[in-house]
Amino acid sequence: MARVRIRQHVNPLSQKYRQVLACPDWATVYDDVRRPLHLDIGCARGRFPLKMAQQHPDWNFLGVEIRQPLVLEANETGDRLGLQNLHYLFGNINVEPEKFFSALPPTLQRVSIQFPDPWFKQRHNKRRVAQPELVTAIANALPPGGEVLLQSDVEPVAQDMRERFAENGNFSFTHDTPWLAENPLGVPTEREIACFNLHRPVYRCLLQLQRIP
């Protein structure tokens, strides 16, 4: 299959991307919906969930991506490999996130947001993925002890995500240092591999839900 050429950035505030993510019947995409679920937000071509699904058959993995051709390509790859613990959805995670998370299997245990579009200009901050409404939806969906992994090679973006989750009040960091030196999941994204090869730093943190009263 030919590699699809896709725009690197799309405007999530465009009317084209303002529909709520449509969830399938989970029993039709996972052979066992009782397994713990890892949601990867902004999965791009889906290589990270793909590798995780291959290495951890006792988990289900769901990638969400706003560029539809990438989702079609990723699902074709997963189907071709016969992976019944992997699925991808097209859509904008920040459109009514509470509704989307309420439609997920009740086994959600981990969420990752890795190397999201930076949207450097101040007036474009509202286009960044880690919006307060999304953080709240994640906090409401995860059980106590559920994890959130955040990564970026752009320090202001990583700091912004870190602050958004810290401000929620339901999360605590699993480490005393500002950033983790190593990826705690052991499976790098394509961007992470590129940063390593270019000797560029990656800013990452891991949080756990405490559900503070």
TrEMBL record:
Entries under InterPro entries matching the protein: SAM-dependent_MTases_sf (IPR029063), tRNA_(Gua-N-7)_MeTrfase_Trmb (IPR003358), tRNA_methyltr_TrmB_bact (IPR055361)
Sites where the protein binds substrate: 121, 153
Molecular function as annotated in GO: tRNA (guanine(46)-N7)-methyltransferase activity
Region (Interaction with RNA): 123-128
Gene3D superfamilies cross-referenced by the UniProt entry: Vaccinia Virus protein VP39
UniProt enzyme class: transferase
Annotated catalysed reactions: guanosine(46) in tRNA + S-adenosyl-L-methionine = N(7)-methylguanosine(46) in tRNA + S-adenosyl-L-homocysteine
EC number: 2.1.1.33
Pathway(s) served: tRNA modification; N(7)-methylguanine-tRNA biosynthesis
Residues annotated as binding S-adenosyl-L-methionine: 40, 65, 92, 117
Keywords associated with the record: Methyltransferase, S-adenosyl-L-methionine, Transferase, tRNA processing
Free-text function comment from the UniProt entry: Catalyzes the formation of N(7)-methylguanine at position 46 (m7G46) in tRNA.
NCBIfam families: tRNA (guanosine(46)-N7)-methyltransferase TrmB
UniProt similarity note: Belongs to the class I-like SAM-binding methyltransferase superfamily. TrmB family.
Name this protein carries in UniProt: tRNA (guanine-N(7)-)-methyltransferase
